[in-house]
Amino acid sequence: MAIMEVGMPKKPLEAIEEHFSKVTDPRVDRTKEHKLIDILSIAICAVVCGAEGWVDVELFGQSKLPWLKTFLELPNGIPSHDTFGRVFSRIDAQQFQLAFYEWVWAVNDIIQGQIVNMDGKQLRGSKDKVLGKRAIYMVSAWAEANELVLGQRKVDEKSNEITAIPELLKILAISGCIVTIDAIGTQTNIAQTIMEAGADYVLSVKENQGHLYEDVSVLFGVDQAQNFKYASLEYAKTTNKGHGRLEIRECWSTSNPEYLNLIRGKQDWAELKSIAMIVGTRIIDGKETKRVRFYISSLPSHAERLLQIVRKHWSIENDLHWVLDVALHEDHSRVRKDQAPENLAVLRHIALNLLKQEKTAKGGIHAMQLQAAWKEDYLLKVLAAAN
Predict the structure, then answer these.
(1) At what angle do helices 81-90 and 54-63 cross, to 10 degrees?
(2) Global pTM value
(3) Which sign, positive or negative, has the C-alpha torsion 359, 362, 367, 373?
(4) According to DSSP H, which parts of the chain are helical?
(5) pLDDT band with cut points at 50, 70 and 90 for residue 4
């Protein structure tokens, strides 16, 4: 490897090349007309600029060939869309995801103590009725303060998110962070894994948790029936008004042992320190709806903080999943062959991470993609976050 001179600027995607070069090339030597890192780099740039499939990626490469040659070797020009499709269908998805994880943590200053949201998302377009292939689910970890995907893991076809979440947790460096997961992740082994990673948890409790839901809901229900007159609970409230809508969120929480010790199987939940009830009231055009949710946490009772954490859990829906569908059209993707859907999902995560870190442009992600496609100097600004 050549030694870089002091002050010499990094070429675009240099860190990508460093970390993703560890991914095993699935091709035999006689079929390697194009370097694997060139294929990966073109695909990343293309997805940043709005490419949604392999035909788009090839078209981007052909359109940007002179520019791409300034930092890629491209010994045989731009690969065909069939080549992109074959390579990404055969790249080991877990290797690719691990390279992504190592790259994210190497080039970003991850804010310590932040909220890390975890949730699964179905890639609807990956379903293939002809081959009897179900749509795949990907579980992702989202760093709310950094606005970064930290890692992802495919849910095994014969399993569910309960098995994928611990696998992902075990590779994440989340010490000091607060992990939030929806009710499917409210499992004793997941709480234990989070604590072993040096993090804390705030987990949603729903009816599918049996005794846990029954006990927590009854504990708060008794006090609620008396209008909390005799309760030793902490309380916090937020009110948001706008666009003809009024939203009120109220939180009651406690770390009182007299409450916690009434939860059956409490000892099975690692470091369980508090429980909380959050009531959301929404009023639109005079019509009122209420939603009651319950939570368990390894954090001490602090109603205001718990209310804030729970609200920020939805960052993964609003800032990741919604953007993937609306701006990057993930649900419309018809890439289905072998490991290609997972690997394309990682490419979208790379692109989204790069776009989220570029702060100079106005407008949303789609507008930034258009600017990157139109202006190579702006695309270089976006790619700067890759290093």
Answers:
(1) 130
(2) 0.91
(3) negative
(4) 14-20, 36-48, 54-63, 65-68, 81-90, 93-107, 161-171, 188-196, 211-225, 257-260, 303-313, 315, 322-326, 340-357, 365-374, 376-384
(5) very low
